[in-house]
Amino acid sequence: MRNTIEEEILLNVRPADKERREVQEMGQKLIDAVIRIAGVPAMMTGSVARGTWVRGDKDIDIFMLFPKTLSREELQEKGLAAAYAVVEMFKGSSEEKYAEHPYLNAVIEGFDVDLVPCYHIDSTAEMQCAVDRTPFHTRYLLDRIGGLRDDVLLLKQFTKGGGVYGSDHMTGGFSGYLCELLILAYGGFTELLQAASTFRYGEVIDIERFYPDKKTVRKLFSEPLIVIDPTDKTRNVAAALTPTRFSEFMELARDYCANPDPCYFIPDAPTSISKNDFSATLKKRGTTMLAVSLKTPAYVPDTVVPQLRKTMESISNQLVGEDFPVHRAEVAMGTERSLIIFELLVATLPAIVLREGPPVWVHNNADSFVEKYLRENEYAGPWISEDRYYTEVVRKYTSAHDLLADKQKMLSGSIGKHVRISMEEGYEVLVGEEIWSPEFTFFLSAYFAKSSHAVRKLRVVDQR
After folding, report:
1. Which of 64, 247, 296, 407 is deepest in the core (most CB within 10 A)?
2. Helices 243-258 and 453-462, axial angle in degrees (round to 10)
3. Number of H helices and number of E strands within the chain?
4. d(CA 431, CA 343)
5. Which residues, in sequence order, are CB contacts of 464 under 8 Å at separation 6+?
6. Does the structure show a pLDDT above 80 at 377?
């Protein structure tokens, strides 16, 4: 049973009849064009095909179904040729993008259109690439989701309002297909949120009951939420959902069920921070913020962002290894530049560091340690404390800035391939207010205002 809040939300997010008609007509024109140009079947996939898109999100996905006898090279060649010809027919604009193989993203008559080549197969057991699975998703849901479309719209808007929608690497949240399957599994929006309030890590949803029990599933998958794809039992639809987003969704569901409010369906408005306010905030916190600024690699976010995060972890480990504990770290991918920022409680250290040696009774190692520090040691040691040698030595890096500026040291870590190439070409180490720029004003504002999405909603409710 929906409450008045949810009924009001549906009035705002449910596509109008005119929009539905326009989308369907455009989709059919594109399908007819593919058949005419390429001589192969085509179908509309995704939320538009299933009638589960939120008003205004008129993205049309057209999958061109080529014979499975084609090689991958032939599929790519014929698929792109057909896609370009379709765009030309409608006088649209386009650019190539890459998933498992190239496809075309186009703007045609005001619609955002993806033209994707795939194999025309009879079952997912014949898949030659991941995109071959997508048409099966549409066929599966078209037969089952009919009476639950409004519930899907509510869940999509709820996850958007809570900042957990989007399966891209930057978000690590819920995909549209995952939202649809969750609604299908629980039979409605309210039922899902009530169940989600008590989810635990390793929650299992197996709609088609491919597996005998949850224990068997958990041996195969390790993600926080495991939703077995009804069209392919070897795939977890929720694989991209991070533990953080999973936990945030549970918190949102729990709080909304306890105290429903429209704000849970409204995305937080982004805020910016001026350079003066940025400097004042750092001064108030009493921390030191440093950033590695590098040229953004010329790849899509789903490629670059994971590499930035991998690099962030590597550098964080190096900082910790040199006695600069990292309070918080984050990455931001901009159009021209990308940032890897580190906030430190301590950014400078004394000139000396304590070096621990071997136990006295490990004779060879002990002798070598003493010999090493016997003569050219300007500080105390070696000495014995209990059964082990110690000495004071010169610290290699007395400032975190010097460590980050040591290019050889930085590149010795585990760094993403394309990020490494960019850093090899050169990077800057920025300190304090040097980090601020108009390109990152929203990112830096969000960094300082960090809190869970549900906490932000509770603040909105409390202020009323």
Report:
1. 64
2. 30
3. 18, 15
4. 10
5. none
6. no
Q: What are phi and psi of 229, to 5 degrees?
A: -65, 120
* Integer CA distances (angstroms), 181 to 167, 178, 257, 356, 383, in order: 15, 5, 21, 56, 66
Nearest partner of 360 among 352, 368, 348, 372, judged by Cα: 368
Give residue-wise pLDDT tens across range 277-294: 999 999 999 999 999 999
Residue 78: both structure tokens together: 């014929």
pLDDT range class, residue 372, cuts 50, 70, 90: confident
The pTM assigned to this predicted structure is 0.87
Residue 88 makes CB contacts below 8 A (sequence gap 6+) with: none
| Bridge partners of residue 340, in order along the sequence | 292, 331
For residues 97 and 226, what is the distance between their CA atoms, to the nearest angstrom? 29
**Euclidean distance between CA atoms 80 and 34, whole angstroms:** 11
Mean pLDDT of all residues in the chain?
A: 93
pLDDT at residue 153, rounded to an integer: 97
Q: Report the alpha-carbon distance of residue 335 to residue 357 in Å, rounded.
A: 49
pLDDT (tens digit per residue) in 316-329: 999 999 999 999 99
Q: Between 464 and 403, where is the model more confident?
A: 403
